[in-house]
Amino acid sequence: MAKAAKKTRPRVVRSVKALREALAEWRERKAVIALVPTMGALHAGHISLVALAKKSAKKVVVSIFVNPTQFGPHEDFSRYPRPIEADLDKLSEAGADLVFMPDAKEIYPDGFATMLKPTGPASVGLDDKFRPGHFDGVATVVAKLFTSVMPDIAIFGDKDYQQLQVIKTMARDLHLPVKVIGAPIVREKDGLALSSRNVYLSPTERAAAPVLHQVLKESAKAIAAGEDPEAVLSRGRAKIMSAGFKLDYLEARDAATLAKLGEQPRKPKVRLLVAAKIGKTRLIDNFAV
Ligand code: AMP
After folding, report:
1. pLDDT 10s digits, 129-154
2. Cys-Cys with 258: which of 23, 124, 156, 251 at CB 3.0–4.6 Å?
3. Which residues are known catalytic residues?
4. Angle between helix 16-28 and 134-149 (nearest 10)
5. Ligand 1 pocket: which residues have CB below 6 Å?
6. Could you give the domains of the chain?
7. pTM of the entire predicted model
8. Minimal-distance CA residue to ligand 1 atom 17
């Protein structure tokens, strides 16, 4: 059977000026515009965001930018995968309309001097504690993407759950007229959350990695059934460490603010969040109780 005709590639723009020119016509026609920010190395998780964006908007812009300001000095910025051609093929297939792929100088030109410093969900002792400055970089680049694209809606994955809460708060606090939407986590069959960093895992590490999701799932069930969260989580922490992980945290938090439990007047919705390192690779995941 003949292969289905390949879809045409979306237009790629590299400067904010070209981006705004490309968007002007859509804006004139009052087309609803969605933005899906990514760092590339696209997988089915990213593509699910594009699919959701297409359902909710007339035009879909995907940004691909490995943002240097959100990486720590000893993190994987330089070795972060950048398979540009494969990414563009996937975005053609997914039906993205425009790809914004700036280089670092476009986003951070010489003399750049304005970083955002989010607090609230960005200072709760989760990833902020283990990646100092990370959310400053995330909030700054996403604010720049929002003011450059001016999307009506922006889609982010629940996968980076703390990031999602930081961005929702930032958009609200800066009165940015964009609706920030969270999308469900896409997982492998064995439960491992898809991540561009999974390619770093050796076969042994890959085999151990689903323990994060297992523990989240079991713990959520036990807590929902009324077991003491701290007792459940300490069991979970032990299980993750005995699978070979160095644990940064496994915590149960208020799903909206990420505050510790017991600090709320009413019983909040609870989210379990985990971050742990296996070999050189740091993985994060989360789950609703
Ligand atoms: P990244 O390229 O890792 O910065 O991710 C770009 C966007 O894709 C973020 O909003 C992530 O939360 C989202 N994302 C990454 N992995 C997944 C996944 N497995 N399922 C759903 N969304 C994801």
Report:
1. 999 999 999 999 999 999 999 999 99
2. 124
3. 46
4. 50
5. 38-39, 45-46, 48-49, 156-157, 159-160, 183, 185-186, 193-196
6. 11-183 (3.40.50.620), 196-288 (3.30.1300.10)
7. 0.96
8. 45
